[in-house]
């Protein structure tokens, strides 16, 4: 009684220890997903674009800040003028006072100043531009999430393919042992005269076929490993295979309340189009601007007491001697552009409607895919529960056929057919579990939540 109690206690301790180890160690697929998230170029590119759109939002919000420009210049011009030389922006510099007579002499002139422009009120345009930028940022976030989801699903799917290939390799190696055993048994039976000597050659052929299948399967595994390495953009870990995967069936998942990144993307694009349309529709309204300037200028031209201009020292134009400043309000109305603006906002209106219909299409497609995924998972689970009976029956039939062949009561062909039925049933069992996990992964993909798949590892 005491010994039995000790064995139960030891088993409980080992079970708890194993549970703790499993809880502290991430499954291999989670490690691969974490590595891909850090390394894969497409995922990193989508994250960079998201950050870029975030900076564009900040830039759009700063449109409320007054625009202040500083400028300076030096020129060498004639002073035979009234308004001076014309420059296209910031200020209208002059080379000096008007000359009493026509002079083509040239002197130095200079100017430095600040020009301020502020649009405190835009009749709603700026607010809609900011909201459009924010919606565009939400769209870039959805693109990042969608890129990560699609890549994670592809990586997980490839990993499931790799695990199935590994299990099929194990089954083929077991089948190789059966073929070798049958070949050796046939040699013994042929030497004793119980079976034809031809059977040994035929068994050796079957053994060769299994060896070829194993070589082909090993090549398939190599291709999957290279694909996995590509998908994580790094070398694979040492222990790649998960011995617990594909040996248990997943559970039917609970309904996910997560909005799919595709739907989020379509919503954000529709919202951005709406705000752009509203901003475009307000483009015909006036623009209210506050202007301010402060500048100083220097000129090589001077005036005498009689109002005559003269040049004492041309380099005096480098010294700022006159200073001005001022403020002003400006209200502008695009009178002749209203018809053009109307066609522009009509175009935006149709674009907005197009994005709305695209959103409806995404929702329709996702809803149908969810229905298909739920049914596919349910069917895969039901099939996987049936396949163990096929393996059990095939194994029983093979063992019986093997005994009958050894007794000389069955032909070579019947034994080989029984062996092929057994390996086929064993592979179908593994495939049925693989298809159930694939169906769960598809369910997670169409719900936009990979945790539906990962939570059952």
UniProtKB/TrEMBL annotation:
Entry-linked InterPro entries: OMP_efflux (IPR003423), TolC-like (IPR051906)
Transmembrane segments: none
Compartment(s) where it occurs, according to its Swiss-Prot or TrEMBL record: Cell outer membrane
A GO molecular-function annotation: efflux transmembrane transporter activity
A Pfam family annotated for this UniProt entry: OEP
GO CC annotation: cell outer membrane; efflux pump complex
Top-level taxon: Bacteria
UniProt feature coiled coil, ranges: 207-234
Record key words, sorted: Cell outer membrane, Coiled coil, Membrane, Transmembrane, Transmembrane beta strand, Transport
Annotated family: Belongs to the outer membrane factor (OMF) (TC 1.B.17) family.
PANTHER family in UniProt: OUTER MEMBRANE PROTEIN TOLC
The protein's name in its UniProt record: TolC family protein
Source organism of this protein record: Euzebyella marina
